[in-house]
Amino acid sequence: MTYEAIQFGAADGVATITLNRPQVMNALNSRMRHEITDVLSGLSADIRCVVMTGAGRGFCSGQDLTDRAAAADLEGTLRDEYEPMLRAIRACPAPVIAAVNGVAAGAGANLALAADVVIATESASFIQAFARIGLIPDAGGTFVIPRAVGMARAMGMMLFAEPVSARQAADWGLIWEALPDDAFAAGVEARARQLAQGPTSAFRAIRAAVEASFGNDLDTQLGLEARLQGAAGRSADFVEGVTAFLEKRPARFTGR
Predict the structure, then answer these.
(1) For residue 150, which of 2, 63, 161, 236 sits 20 to 30 Å off, Cα-Cα?
(2) Distances 192 to 23, 215, 255 between C-alpha atoms, Å
(3) Digit-coded pLDDT (tens) for 82-101
(4) Cα gap 37→215, rounded to integer Å
(5) In this structure, are residues 173 and 147 in contact, taking their beta carbons and an 8 Å threshold?
(6) Which residues pair with 126 in a beta bridge?
(7) SS3 sequence, 63-84?
(8) Neighbours of 8 (CB within 10 A)
């Protein structure tokens, strides 16, 4: 696919997806959703971290409200375009960082929150803006946000539709960290490099275990942990990790 609504690049095991409609604050249209899904579904085996960010001064302003086809069938658009995109993020074989470089509103906020880790610049904000136009939060927002911040804060975000600053989002546990604007790019790069040099298969198992924990009782979760740990213990990365520990040197993980 030739990408028009996003930019894609890869170097040193890190793939970068840049939402690239800065003239409309990277609003999501059909083309962008399909391109994000396509690129995440076709990553090469050497990609060990994905960074998703926005061009210009914002991350993503949400659904493009000038897209009349989407507005005419919101249910169909969510099922046919948003759901595959969000599932592609969750199924990505490498950990995904959302690098929120500015406003993340509506479905744009929930696109960011679908990532494994969210890092925002301090001038960024998160807005569940749906109620302003008579809609409910979608794109996974009603699933992710209450689990991250609790019922009271989730309801306040969604009913009042007020911006939550990056610093507040970090304090609430909605995102991993908020960085000073002048340290944001370097901070994201360092985090991406750290993940790209890490034990990729173990990262996938961590994601699987954490996601399953919300629906499992303790006995079921303990059984899952044992199975996943057994597989991790047979990996080359485990052998390398133990060897590096005993030799008092940094581990050189291969992701296998």
Answers:
(1) 63
(2) 27, 29, 14
(3) 999 999 999 999 999 999 99
(4) 26
(5) no
(6) 104, 164
(7) ECCCCHHHHHCHHHHHHHHHHH
(8) 16
